[in-house]
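Hello K.,

You asked for the raw outputs rather than the summary table, so here they are, unedited. I folded two proteins back to back in the same session to keep the settings identical. This is the first:
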Amino acid sequence: MTRGERNIAWCEAHLHLPEGRFVGHPLRMAEFMRDDFRAIYDNPDGTRRAIISRGRKNAKTTECACILLLHLCGPEHRINSQMFSCAQSRDQAAVLFSLAAKIVRLSPKLQSVIQIKDTAKELLCPALGTSYKALSAEVSTAYGLSPALTVFDELGQVRGPRSALYEALETATAAQADPLTIVISTQAPNDQDLLSVLIDDALAGHDPSTVLRLDVAPEEADPFDEATVRLANPALYEFMNVKEVMAQAADAKRMPARESAFRNLVLNQRVEAEEPFLAREIWMACAGEPADLTGREVYAGLDLSEVNDLTALVLIGRDHVTGIWNVKPTFWLPEQGLAERASRDRQVYDLWAAQGDLLTAPGASVSYEYVAEYLFREVFATHHVVKLAFDRWNFRHLKPWLLKAGFSENAIKEKFVEFGQGTQSMSPALRELESLILDRKLRHGGHPVLNMCAANAVVEGPDASNRKLSKKRSSGRIDGMTALAMAVGVAPLSPAKFDPFALIG
């Protein structure tokens, strides 16, 4: 037997199904679960992290309960070792403990060696000195631990690329010779979310000690076809209720409001439950390298922030040969408190600042004086700015600083254009922006901060002709997309017709 086969044999010899139609029956692993065990335990490079991602109700938690018991009292145990599971909510954190405790109670042999502490959500094996505990979502509980095994349940619920709880437990394994982390979850909605970052790194093959078990339905496949559903749900014909799953597919097809959740939770696709303004693949199809806009004719959108939030400026300029609009975004956050904002928003603002993708304004706020001076010295001095759209709400505070920076009253009147944030101004701008992106007439270069804003952007409105970007419904910062829409809104998107007589003096 290989190590993986030995572990499968132990589980099937000692464990019973804790729930469902066959509760109490001896565990018999489905073939896809056996493949998971072989991939994790027979990896020639050794496994440091295993990511198991597939649709809901495919026994991911049951599989992890088996792994926990293997390490608590089975052949994978290490004397006096600690094991932990955690999730984003207290209730979710208790799910794995509850399932493992049920398995123990169904086996007289396991009950004789394992103590169940329901209140503390602990399992103890005194003879081996091993312990397992389900942690709450509080980060403070993760410090001072030294886990040999850690299970992260539904890590896809983490928004942004960072989780203080995940980082605290991952950095706590330094004292262990061969620590193992198991991640189980359906996919996160966005590329920038922590689980997506981990999955994409695993797909790239950078670390051979990371095992990825990913079942996902292709985005181009018919989402309501049973064959497509099967691709993300290997247990569909094993122990899932096929009739119920396909009824969910029929509901999603008939009621578009349910489609996003169905795609994410059942098909395991990266789809936001709130319908985004743009699908990820459509936005990223325009990630080509934009042309340098220095010295060129440009149109701009400026989304002024509150005192200490993200401020965005986006310039767009057309290549008159190809007709493609090139995008140049600039973002600011206050230098003071940058790390705290990164933690609050769960974004890598500090990394983006170090890479030059995010500028930091001195002090605790992005002052209007700072923005005005930047516009005068760095933008208008190096570009031919035809029009700059701004939100009239904050402009009365900016204008005095524009005058102080060196702009004349005439320049402000001629170049700066009021742009409302309601449906009257935003709806036509969003329609034009959508057309540019669908026709691939836009190049944004995959700027990471703008990508974040695009992933978060959600629209609201009764119909396609009455829409606006919604900060309340969006899952994070959308300032860059607001500024881009404003720039598009003041730009003449239809190319001027060539008039040969205009060349005659």
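The second followed immediately with the same parameters:
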Amino acid sequence: MNLDNNPLVVLTTGCNQWDQGLDVMVEGEARLVTDGVVLERLAGEWAKKWDGRWQFEATDGGFRHEAGGLALVFAVRPTKVLVFSKGSFCHTRHLHQDR
């Protein structure tokens, strides 16, 4: 797996509109989540968010689907967050520094 060799990642999200909304980029280190309690909590939250269409159950090591297969779950601890506002076209950033 590539993350074994280099766990540094960039996550992006935003909207498809040119003149409104936000785009967000999060830089950080991806870490595999295997804690059963955390996976159960995440599975429950995602099931609520997706109106029951989320059909995965938490198991040791990730999520399983009724059709089979294991989905790995990663957490990213941000080291830098960039936010771009569209329409007003401004931006900001946050750098996390351990103290």
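The CA atoms of residues 44 and 50 lie 10 Å apart.

Happy to rerun anything if the numbers look odd on your end.

Regards,
P.
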